[in-house]
Amino acid sequence: MIKNKNELKKVLNVERTLYLGLIKSHRIKLRLLQDHDYLIWRFVKSLRYTEYHCNTHHKVRYWLWQRRKNVLGGMLGITMWHNSVDCGLRIYHYGSIIINGHAKIGKNCKFHGDNCIGNKGDFNLSVPIIGDNVTVGNGAKIIGDVHIANGIKIGANAVVTKSFYEEGIVIAGVPAKKIS
Predict the structure, then answer these.
(1) Which of 52, 79, 138, 168 registers the highest number of CB atoms within 10 A of its CB?
(2) What pLDDT score does 84 carry?
(3) For the CA atoms of 102, 108, 113, 114, what is the dihedral angle to 10 degrees?
(4) CATH 2.160.10.10: does it fit domain 84-180?
(5) Confidence at residue 125, expressed as pLDDT on a 0 to 100 scale
C-alpha cells in the first residue's frame, strides 16, 4: 500500500524501468509508437496514483485517477483494483487480465496475459494470496482460497484451485500440480 509521496515515487521508478527501460531515447520511441509496454505502463501508473490518492484520502483526485485507470483498463482488457498488487508488477501482454479486488499479490509478480485471479464466482470473499516473485503463465487461472508461496512459476493454461506452500517450484496442469 502506497501511503506517501516518497513511496509513490519509489514504486513508479521501479515499474517505469520494468516497462520502459533506463534509456530516455528508448522511452520516447515507445511513447511515439504507442508500444504495448508503454500502454501497459500508463495503466500501471494510473493504478499506482489511484492507490496513493485512495490511501491519502484525496477523494476528488482518487476519483479522477480511478476513472483514468478504468478507461485505460477497458481499452487494454485489464481489470485490477488498487491496493491488491505490491511493487514490481510486470504485465507482458494486455487482454483479459482480471484480478479480484480482495486478492493480495506480492512484490515482483509477472503476468503473461489472459489471467484470472479471483474467487469461485459466488459471494464468498475467499480469494488467492500470492507471494513475491511469482510468475503466472499465459492463460493461467488462480481460483478460490488459494495460497501461492514465493518464487513459484505457474505454467501456461494452468488452473490452480489448491494451495502450494513450497517455494520455488513449477506448477502446471488442470488442476495444477507440482511438476518440478
Answers:
(1) 52
(2) 94
(3) -30
(4) yes
(5) 79
